[in-house]
Structure formats: C-alpha cells, structure tokens
Amino acid sequence: MTSPRRVTPEPFVWLMFSAGGVVAALILPVLLVLFGVAIPLGWVEAPDHAHLLAVLRHPLTRLALFGVCALALVHAAHRLRFTVEHTFRLGRYDPAIATVTYGAAAAGAAAAAYLLLTAFG
Amino acid sequence: MDQITLRVARYRPDDEETEPVLVDYDVPLRPDWAVLDGLNYIKDELDGTLSYRWSCRMGICGSCGMMVDGEPKLTCATFLVDLAPGPVRIEPLANFPVIRDLIVDLTDFMHKLSSVKPWLIRQDEQPVEDGEYLQTPAQLDEFKQFSMCINCMLCYAACPVYGLDGSFVGPAAIALAHRYDLDSRDEGDRQRLTILAQPDGVWDCTFVGECSTACPKGVDPAGAIQQAKLAAAQEAMKSLLLPWRSR
Amino acid sequence: MISPLEARYYRRRMPLLWWAHRRSYAIFVLRELSSAFVALFIVELLLLVRATARGPAAYESFLDTMAHPAMIVLNLIALAFVLLHAITFANLTPRAMIVRLRGRRVPSRVVLAGVYAGWLLVTAFLAWLLVAA
Ligand code: SF4
Ligand code: FES
User: What family does the entry list (chain B) (predicted)?
Assistant: First the structure.
C-alpha cells in the first residue's frame, strides 16, 4: 500500500489460476478415472489406437488440450507457490519461488505446445 | 455452587514480564454466564489488575474478541456451560501485538480499514436540499450481508495469511470495501479497486475460508475477497485491452 | 518508528508448523496440495498423447506402464486429490462469483447445481468420445 498505483501481473496470473482450476475440475476426474484406474484394471476396454489417434489429431482437440494443459499447469504453479511460501513461512523468498513455479509451468506449457504441434506430423 | 477454571493469559510488561504466563482463576459456573462474565468476576472479586476490553455485552460493539480455547470468539457471546468442564484457556486475539493481558493493539487494523475508504464516494455530492440518495430493497440486499461487520477482528485472528504476513490488507477491510463497491449509491469502485489490486491487497488471499467461519455476524469475508479479485482482474483486463480508457 | 510503549508489546509469531495445529488448516493445506497431482496428471496426459502419436506399439506400452500396480496406486491417490480439488473448487464457486440473469441475482444453490450439471455433462461427453464412440 505504498505507491498509489503499481503495475502487477497478479490479476492476470489469478485469472489463469482460476480458469485452470475450472478446467482441471471439469475434465481431469473423468480422464484420470478412465486412463489411471478403469482401463488399467480392465473395467473398461481401452479405446483402440486408430480411434484415439483420430480424436487427438483433430485441430480442435489439440487446441483444447493445449489450453487445458497450460491453464492447469499455471493453476498448479500458483497454488504451489503459495503453499510453499505459507506452509514453510518462506514468504520473503516470493520472487525466487514465483520464478521457479511459474517458470516450470511455462516450460510445461511450451513442451505441450511443441508436442501437440509436431507429434502428429 | 459449580466452579470452572479460567486459564487466563497475563502479560504485565510493567512487572518486567517478558512473555505472557497462564494464570488459573476459579469462577462460578452459572448457566447464564458468558466467558466475559467470568472475566468480570475475576476483575471484581479475585484480581483487579486483569485488563481486557468489553463494552456492549451483546455482540454489537466488537471489542471483546479473544482466543477461547484457541478459537477466536466474542467472549460476551460464548457461554461457559458450553466449555465445561474446563479449564478454559483465554488468550488475547491471535496475530495482533499484545499490549497487556488480553488487550491487543488495533492500530494496524484501523489503518487498513481507512485505507480502503469505507464510506460513500460520489463524483458529485448531491446538495442536502435534494434529499437523500434513494435505494430499493433489492439494491440494499446486494451488500447488506457485508454491512453487518462489527470490526471485531476475529477474522484477522483466524487468518493464517495475515498471521504470516502482516502487510496483507485482510478480511474485514476487504469485505467492507466490497460492501461499498456493491452499494448503488457509491461511485468509488475504481478508487477502491486500485487500492485492493495492489500486491498487498486481495492477491495474498488463498481462500483458506477461516475468516468466514470465525465471523460472529455471518459476514462472508472470504467470498467478498474472491469477488473483489474478480472485479479487480476485470479492471486490469480492461486497462490492458483498452489502455486509452484508464486515466 | 517504534515508541517506547510499542517496544514493550508482546509480538507472537506463527508457529512454523501452524497448519498442523488446527484441523481446518490441515484440510486447507491438503486442498492446496491437490494441485501437485493436477500437474502430475497433466504430465501423464501429455505422455499419453505422445505415445498415441508414435504409433500402436508405443500406445500399447504406455497402457502397460499405466497398468503397473505402483502406477495404479499412484493414480488412485492422484484421483483422490483431484476429486478433492474438483469438489472444493465447485463448492466455493457460488461464493466467489455472483451470477446475474436478466439483472436478477441467481441464488447460490442454483449456481451450485449449474456447476455440477456442467461437470456431469462434460464428464459424459468425454467418456462417450473416448470409450463409447
Ligand atoms: S467480518 Fe466478521 S469477524 Fe471480521 S471484523 Fe467483521 S464482524 Fe468481525
Ligand atoms: S462486549 Fe460488545 S461485542 Fe462483546
């Protein structure tokens, strides 16, 4: 509350954090139940390769997947930043912690973009 | 008559005490006695040097907040029978500096409260002869919940973020800012949002939600903070996309 | 500037393990930790995409890895945390956001019902797209 108006990236990070929380809540549970539990345990038959490839190849799927990955990673980075700072009383190292967490999210998002753009030829 | 032990934190810097000590006092356990009545009994009958704040005894003035068995409570609204058999631990409100015994320093909270301008801001003040600013019941309902705050600071005592970082504006101040932002008679939204959008404003909050649990008046400061975040983020987006619009 | 009076104040500090002192704080920290499992599963998801793109053999071997008992245990833990995230996030939505329809405020219970309905819809669509279609 020192200077009257400082520019801060917090509002934009927070918007991405919230959007990431929403997409993670909406789509991760079903994907995790399917690929993490139901298919490995044989409750549900795995989608055959050709079908899954066709779904993933569609530009809309890839665009959506990129959005989901990038936003969910920012969501995780934001929460972990505060979790680390608050649970271990490390608030004074915020600049370093924020750089590491958001940096990791940005790297993950870049990797996702690279994969989704190039892997399908 | 039944008795209950109050284990009261005493801090007497005049007596060269460097940290608080817990002292036990036995007080009568009466069905109609609140913790505050027990403290008054101690002060009147057992030890007149005990210091604490209180005034209305009916949950209105907000001055009797203390930690009762580790929870922030209004001592005039917390009954001894509900805490029996005791002993009941009574300490000054958490997260604030202690002046003596059960009295904490309010200065920080008072500064924060006024920093968010919790009053009606008008572009042009309407002359008195034009009468009052009218408001419909529906417009009142928009903010009524947030106007119930009695500034008791229980929410600050419950908030780990404020405890960890004293520069955080904190629950009640943001809830009150939001109360005026939602008021149809007010035109100060952008001024207040500019203040709340500072790094020590709304962004520190991680929605622990304990402030709303602690509030004795049914205010939901945690909800208000998220709503203020959304409003501040929308403002920030607008000034990014439409830079000519911002002053 | 600190006055002589203020110098005598007793200042408490949050204990290092403050979140272990209260149940509600501990649950809060668990809720925040759910995000680590969100990130973990995003990585798994990208590995699935990569394996699928590389062809049927890579896809089969990805499925085999996921069927390893240790992976199943890890994913069950991840699922518990992801569900904790989904439920807490959904339940906090009506408090964080005021929804208006035609100028009228939509009651929280209706907003919450809408959130869960949307969740069911998305879940059903994805399940259909991946395994039923
Ligand atoms: S919001 Fe509630 S707990 Fe906080 S100061 Fe106001 S009345 Fe007290
Ligand atoms: S004495 Fe006034 S609120 Fe308790």
Answer: Belongs to the succinate dehydrogenase/fumarate reductase iron-sulfur protein family.
**Distance from residue A58's CA to the centre of ligand 1 (Å):** 52
Q: What is the CATH number of the domain that holds A40?
A: 1.20.1300.10
Architecture of domain C12-83: Up-down Bundle (1.20)
CB contact C54 to A (< 8 Å): yes
Dump pLDDT digits (tens) for A55-110.
999 999 999 999 999 999 999 999 999 999 999 999 899 999 999 999 999 999 99
* Amino acid letter, residue B39: L
Cα–Cα dist B226/B211, whole Å: 13
The ipTM assigned to this model is 0.89
For chain B, residues classed under CATH 1.10.1060.10 are 107-246
Length of chain C: 133
Q: With the CA atoms of C24, C30, C31 and C33 taken in that order, what torsion angle do they form, in degrees rounded to the nearest 10?
A: 150
Question: Residue B118, exposed/middle/buried by CB under 10 A (0-12, 13-18, 19+)?
Answer: buried
pLDDT 10s digits, A6-58: 678 899 999 999 999 999 999 999 999 999 999 999 898 889 999 999 999 99
Q: Give the one of B198, B206, B232 whose C-beta lies nearest to A82's C-beta.
A: B206
